[in-house]
Amino acid sequence: MAAAADPLSSLVSVLESYRGRDRVVRDAPPPPPPWRRRGLRERCCRGPPWGGRVPEGRRGADGGHWAVPWPLSLTRPSPQIRTLCYGCQLAGGVLARKSPTESEMGRRLLAVSAQLSHCRTVLRLFDDLAMLAYSRQYGLGAKEEDTIVRWLSVLSNLADQLYYPCEHVAWAADADVIRTNSHKWWTLSTAFWGLSLVLGIVRSLRILLQLRRKLRNCTGESLEQSQKEMDAQVKSEVLSILSSMADLSNAVHWLPPGFLWAGQFPPWLVGLMGTISSLIGVYQTSVGAGSGAV
Q: Transmembrane stretches, by residue range (predicted)?
């Protein structure tokens, strides 16, 4: 019973810390290596696979939406929290490079960013069911007109689904709920996130190519109406590509040193890339809400 109580006690302690209560740390583990300490601070704002936007923001090649059952989406962190998280990291990273007074303010903003990220990580503990419901609803993409778009979407959903348990295990290991090496699980979750982003970028490029072909085939009275609809979808896909590229740059940075530019971004650059992605997400969410998208 004592062995079983320890993990539960650790879990309760961690959850209470996000409610603003004092956290009691016993037998603190030895500090992580320098690169991991840097990674934990700068990784603090990593978002869910879809970059902080809701799954129903994904459109099919025909412009249709795939919805997630409302009760399963209640725990989803809002894009506003993600934007604030990255914004604090951007401002904190810039101020930390200046005078001692501004540097102190920068450290405080980075601390706020880290706490917001911890909050989002805990909220994502409950996102597996929402993602599973979305993946089951999408299935093998029978509604998609293009086979390539369909399988890119299926693979992206699979990467997203695998991302969550990996992150949960890494979080539980860092919180001393389970005994395992969290580093490999953080790396695996980041790899799945990066894979999802790459697949999303390729998918959007494929959809843009299809839209271009459709526009060429439009003639007569349907040309003007099709032009407006396709322009809106092209804008959405271009924004999604820019957002995913910004997130992908951070995802590579959070991988172990030695891979491309991994570990090379200063905190302000991580915050800048995340802020760009988050603001695009806020804009797309507001546009979707204004157009009546579910």
A: 185-205
The candidate with the shortest Cα–Cα distance to 80, out of 286, 258, 219, is 286
Q: Which of 66-70, 72-76, 208-212, 229-233 reaches the highest mean pLDDT?
A: 208-212
50-54, 113-117, 124-128: lowest mean pLDDT where? Answer: 50-54
Note down the domain range covering 101. 70-136+266-293
C-alpha–C-alpha distance, residues 42 and 89, integer Å? 8
Residue 53 contacts residue 79 (beta carbons within 8 Å):
yes
The packing angle between helices 100-123 and 147-174, to 10°, is 110
With CA atoms as reference, report the closest residue to 88 among 116, 113, 117.
113
Give per-residue pLDDT as tens, 121-160.
888 888 888 888 888 888 887 788 888 989 999 999 999 9
Cα distances (Å, whole numbers) of residue 162 to 155, 159, 177, 234, 252: 11, 5, 20, 29, 18
The CA R_g of the chain, rounded to the nearest whole Å, is: 21
Looking at the domain assignment, is residue 106 inside a domain?
yes
- Is residue 273 a part of any domain in this protein? yes
Rounded to whole angstroms, how far apart are CA atoms 222 and 280?
A: 30
pLDDT at position 51 over 50: no
Give a yes or no: residue 278 inside a domain: yes
In a domain, 47, yes or no: no
Q: Is the dihedral of CA 289, 82, 158, 249 positive or negative?
A: positive
pLDDT given for residue 146 in this prediction: 82
Structure tokens at 79: 């894009």
Cβ contacts of residue 198 below 8 Å, gap of 6+?
A: 248
Number of domains, the chain:
1
